[in-house]
Specification:
heterodimer; A: about 325 residues; B: about 500 residues; 3 domains; NqrB/RnfD (chain A); transmembrane helix (chain A); FMN (chain A); flavoprotein (chain A); cell membrane (chain A)
Chain lengths: ~325, ~500
């Protein structure tokens, strides 16, 4: 029996931060495995490199800052590396991948003071850094070449085995042929490693919602923020503006809505703030895609909104229980 | 739709653990060998003993009282002799010792005086309130505020609705549940009397929907009474909080910084209602209470009716003792209860539970960095941002913490319960509150000291000025006289 003083509550729900992180990684498995299936060995190498170098960078930074190495496997570093890998083209040179992971962990996270302190989503920060430094490699999209089951057995494409590669345009590039929404759902097209299939991302997202790791506000707000202006402008000038469904199901929108914008550290905590944040992300994605010159709608939008998070948290606090708006007059019974 | 209707934002559903003791009927604990009655109340007020060492006291006899109504009188729960008046461990988690009356049992369990039954509805409001004050009743829900004072305040504010709190939202605790089932009539009549004492139009007994047997029993007991209403509220922690219960029952919100009586609503606990009934109907003082002894660290969880002043050790032995895995003793529920510093701690009037918890139940783990997941914000029933308050408190920025609503915090522990990083949020808040109080009283003290110093300087200056004036007056007098003399001399010589 311990009689020493201890603060309540003397019970706990049982959740831990690292279990949350690993649940997010678990939720990323469907789209990750699908990425490996579509893009083959080179994608696997990218994923492994990003994850391992993220852990390595985390270990180095923890040692350097004099923090206990026990937090190395809390899942946060692995998740950062993993998300970065999913956002990269499947055949990115591995040294660029490793550099990105190091940047994400060292600059994106530890320079701000470590877990929970960073202003920007580390994976997106690294993604944008790589894009700016290595624009050619980062826009070298490879065609989807999944194995096909033929009469003679499983047909493995040499491109799939990573021996060679063919470039292709992503659905969002100007020269790309219009892809049917069905194709975007199932993701048999060029694109980033883990972003091609809206369906598999959605599966993971629904898992997170079910496990209550994330709440529904940010994903809904992101999708609405993108879909509403797209619907409006497409209705006005259908030939000039992409349809809302193409916007929603292409590129990293679903990944952003369920996995990137919902990053706990860099998103607002109040429900009001989450609406503003999510709608802002969606609207910015639409604006950047439609009027911007960079293809990076998602990464830029998320980073810009990340920068506003402290402001949103400051101004949009939840209302204290019982307080009322000034115009409200209480009736005495 | 009830499953979807949330009466207030935030709140949590902690694991109940009520199954340990919910089917245990209330057992009357035989009076222990000794009882220990602390002569200092939770709020710090001191009581002075009316008996001395060696005196024999009877069950129900007044043994200590305070200087004013904030100090509720204390009655002996047993027949026996005053063995000692000495410093003894109290229920405060710091283990601080307070002056305590030790009464040795003589084995006789009868009441010392006949408490004749009276018809309480014939009493005037003032007399009812006086009887409640004299019976030494405090709120038995845990806060321990003197019931008579609360009722008097409510009457003066012309409260129209009395809500009786049968929520019992803390995990493990089942004593109120059992009390409502087994003493439904006492609770109902006590509520009716309380409503009458303050002039309220009706009383609503609010029970959480996870206590069907209690709801049934109360409905039967109140069937004939039109001014008593039984209302079912959803199970959501902290439903026991006054503000949240009022919201769930009436839909009204008590504005921050105001009291519920300003809305015309008063909240009391079911156990308090029963004590009031006993005080008014039988003129019996409060000398015992029902409490739950539970937790995986207890051999036989029970609901017990125990004399006030029974030691924790006596309660544990009445419940078959501790199991090998028991790690922590808690007074009250696991959410807001406090660690018991010693097995010799006596039970005071406001302890509603004794829990022996194992490490598996406590889940006290190393805390990690905050990841800003926002779960504390979603769980906070007061609409605060606990992680911000904790961050400010940790760096002693108490103004910042207050800016984020520290003063509105109920210390209910919902935020700590859900925090995946296991940050001891409530600990930060209680610490910050303590610091703010200490700073405030220091500021008051130094303001007072400054006032006194200034007054003294002023007084001295005034006195000095007065002396100087007197001196000057005297000197002037002398000069005048001298001048007169001189003039006289001159006139004489000139003659």
């Amino acid at each position: 029996m311990k009689y020493n003083i201890a603060s309540g509550p003397h019970t706990h729900g049982g959740d831990s931060s690292s279990s949350l992180m690993y649940q997010v990684i678990l939720a990323l498995l469907p789209t990750s495995l699908f990425g490996l299936y579509v893009f083959g060995v080179s994608a696997l190498l990218v994923l492994l490199t990003a994850s391992i170098s993220a852990l390595l960078a985390e270990s180095i930074m923890l040692y350097w800052r004099g923090v206990n190495q026990s937090s190395l496997f809390d899942g946060s570093a692995l998740l950062t590396g993993w998300l970065l890998a999913l956002s990269l083209p499947p055949a990115t040179p591995l040294w660029i991948v490793a550099l990105g992971s190091f940047f994400a962990i060292a600059i994106g996270k530890h320079a701000y003071g470590g877990l929970g302190q960073n202003l920007f989503n580390p994976a997106m920060l690294a993604r944008v850094m790589l894009l700016i430094c290595f624009p050619v490699e980062l826009t070298d999209w490879h065609a989807a070449t999944p194995p096909v089951l033929t009469e003679t057995g499983l047909d493995l494409n040499p491109y799939w085995l990573g021996i060679d590669a063919i470039s292709s345009a992503t659905p969002l590039a100007a020269e790309a042929p219009m892809l049917a929404v069905r194709s975007l759902w199932f993701g048999h097209h060029a694109g980033s490693l883990g972003e091609t299939s809206a369906l598999f991302i959605l599966l993971g997202g629904l898992f997170l919602l079910w496990r209550k790791v994330i709440n529904w506000v940010i994903p809904t707000a992101v999708l609405l923020g993108l879909a509403l202006p797209a619907l409006l402008l497409h209705a006005i000038k259908p030939d000039q503006f992409l349809s809302a469904s193409t916007h929603l199901f292409s590129g990293a929108v679903f990944l952003a809505a369920f996995f990137i914008a919902t990053d706990m550290v860099t998103s607002p905590v109040s429900v009001k703030g989450q609406w503003v944040f999510g709608l802002g992300c969606g609207l910015l994605i639409f604006l950047i895609r439609t009027f911007g010159n960079y293809p990076e709608g998602v990464a830029f939008s998320v980073l810009i909104m990340n920068a506003t998070t402290p402001l949103i948290d400051h101004y949009l606090r939840p209302a204290v229980f019982g307080s009322r708006p000034k115009w409200f007059k209480e009736e005495r019974a | 739709m009830r499953a979807f209707a949330k009466p207030f934002r935030g709140g949590i559903h902690p694991v109940g653990y009520k199954e340990f003791s919910q089917d245990c009927a209330i057992e009357k604990l035989p009076a222990p060998k000794r009882v220990y009655l602390g002569l200092q109340q939770r709020n710090g007020t001191l009581l002075s003993a009316l008996v001395s060492v060696g005196d024999s006291v009877g069950k129900g006899q007044l043994v200590a009282k305070g200087a004013n109504d904030m100090a509720v009188p204390l009655h002996s729960p047993i027949n026996g002799t005053v063995e000692d008046i000495r410093d003894y461990v109290s229920a405060h988690p710091s283990g601080i010792k307070i002056k305590t009356l030790v009464i040795k049992n003589n084995g006789d369990s009868s009441w010392s005086q006949q408490h004749g039954s009276i018809h309480p509805l014939s009493l005037a409001s003032d007399e009812m309130l006086q009887r409640i004050l004299d019976a030494g009743i405090v709120g038995l829900g845990g806060a321990g505020f003197p019931t008579g004072i609360k009722l008097r305040l409510a009457r003066d504010k012309q409260v129209h609705t009395l809500i009786i709190n049968g929520g019992e939202c803390e995990p493990y605790l089942t004593c109120d549940d059992r009390l409502m089932q087994e003493y439904a009539v006492d609770v109902v009549l006590g509520s009716q009397l309380m409503a009458k004492a303050i002039g309220a139009r009706k009383a609503i007994i609010a029970v959480e929907d996870n206590k069907p047997a209690s709801i049934q029993a109360l409905k039967i007991a109140a069937a004939e009474l039109h001014d008593i209403e039984i209302q079912v509220v959803p199970s959501l922690y902290p439903m026991g909080s006054e503000r949240h219960l009022i919201k769930a029952v009436t839909g009204k919100t008590v504005a921050p910084g105001t009291l519920s009586v300003e809305l015309g609503i008063l909240v009391h606990n079911v156990a308090t209602a029963r004590a009031v009934y006993h005080a008014l109907r039988f003129n019996r003082p409060l000398i015992d209470r029902v409490l739950t002894v539970s937790g995986a660290g207890i051999e036989q969880p029970k609901n017990l009716l125990v004399p006030i002043g029974t030691s924790v050790a006596d309660l544990l032995s009445a419940c078959g003792g501790l199991t090998m895995s028991a790690q922590r003793l808690v007074a009250g529920g696991p959410m807001m209860g406090q660690v018991i510093p010693s097995p010799y701690t006596p039970i005071d009037k406001s302890i509603g539970g004794l829990l022996a918890l194992t490490d598996q139940e406590v889940r006290d783990e190393q805390s990690h960095d905050c990841v800003r997941c926002g779960r504390c914000v979603a769980a906070c029933p007061m609409g605060l941002m606990p992680f911000q308050m904790a961050a400010h408190s940790r760096v002693s920025d108490y103004d910042g913490a207050q800016d984020y609503g520290l003063n509105h915090c109920l210390l209910c522990g919902a935020c700590s319960y859900v925090c995946p990083s296991r940050i001891p949020l409530v600990q930060h808040f209680s610490h910050a509150r303590g610091e703010i109080n200490a700073q405030r009283s220091m500021a008051q003290k130094s303001a007072l000291a400054r006032l006194l110093t200034n007054a003294r300087a002023e007084r001295l200056a005034k006195e000095a000025a007065q002396r100087k004036a007197e001196k000057a007056a005297k000197a002037a007098e002398r000069k005048k006289k001298a001048a007169q003399r001189k003039a006289q001399q001159a006139s004489e010589s000139g003659e």
